[in-house]
Amino acid sequence: MRAWTKAGAAVVAAAGLVAGAGPGSADPGDPGRRLVVKEQSTAAGWTGLFGRPLATAGGERTWDTTVSTDGRYGLTVSGSDVRQYALSRSSARYLGRTTAAYGHTVVARPGRSYAYVLDRDDIHVLDVRSSAPRKVRTISGAFTLRDAVITPDGKTMYVAFGGSLSSNKGIRVYSLSTPSAPRWVRTVPLAHVSPSALSLNRQATRLAVGYNLVGKVQFFTTSQPTRPRSLGSGTAMPGDNSVSSMVFSPAGTALYVVGTDRPYLTTVDVATRRVTHNKDYSSTFGRYTDIYDVVMTKSGTYLYIALDGQEDSRTVAVVTRSGRSIAATFSGVLYPRGLSVSHAGSSLDNGYFASSTSSSTDGYYVGFGKR
Known about the structure:
By secondary structure, this protein is an all-beta fold. It has one helix at 282-285, and strands at residues 17-21, 33-37, 41-43, 46-55, 62-67, 73-78, 81-87, 92-99, 103-108, 114-119, 122-127, 134-140, 145-150, 156-161, 170-175, 183-188, 195-200, 206-211, 216-221, 229-230, 235-236, 243-248, 254-259, 264-269, 274-280, 290-296, 302-308, 315-320, 326-331, 336-342, 350-356, 362-370.
């Protein structure tokens, strides 16, 4: 759920993921083998670009990923560490790692400078300007951190916090004027417990907060970045679907919402804050399939959604924004979680995902795109 840009999750993999020999890394945790995605089209010209196994210390699952705005670097976070990779059109090269005891979300400032990892009640500040991420500071004090987003100018960070039963909930606003030392500015109250997702439009004028238990989305105006103002108590999702991820359209006029109760892709009109469309993928992927993440290409033509249900529905799907139809799926990778999209280049929208295997001992870092 982030830019260098947020977009955290899973990918529909091309027709075959084939283990092959490849150069290893000096890092003892790297298995020293490369996963090759066959250069084989699946639909509408979509094809896998590359794949690589990820070793995660202690067998922890990989939860999230973020890609730099220029598409050259990527970060993944698991329940034990944060890893940095150099990305190209055909490879992901491991650079280094640092520890994060219970990390689940990673966001980064535009460019390649500092990243921020949510780790239960702490925020770890990482210097990512060199090969291995370096932890320079840990910020404590908020209860149950849920999600974070950074404004496109890299000056402000919003962090949602709050448990399912606690009245201690809100959005903590941080100034990133000194990126290595985020400064708390204020806490903005929330209408409901259990916030689960944040999304900021590209214009940085609207912030959306998704809720897990109540199945709602609450909007805030951020015309004054450090003073978000609520625009109501929230828009109810069809079937009270728990919100797991959201993304705004390029113009900021629509919000696309996914959840983990039902395989719905719900569209909310930002001006009226009303649901205008709800696509149910139960007949395609199964009623009990969860959608963990959603991101959008730079052009806004396609959405990528990460699905996890029965074995045949653990995939990343490429969805057309106009008709919400499935343009392609990439299969063969289990437990997709974090999706990211690189907005570098004019025509090719590369996507990336971090995913765990069935044994939860390692994962895959895979790139894909449209030729």
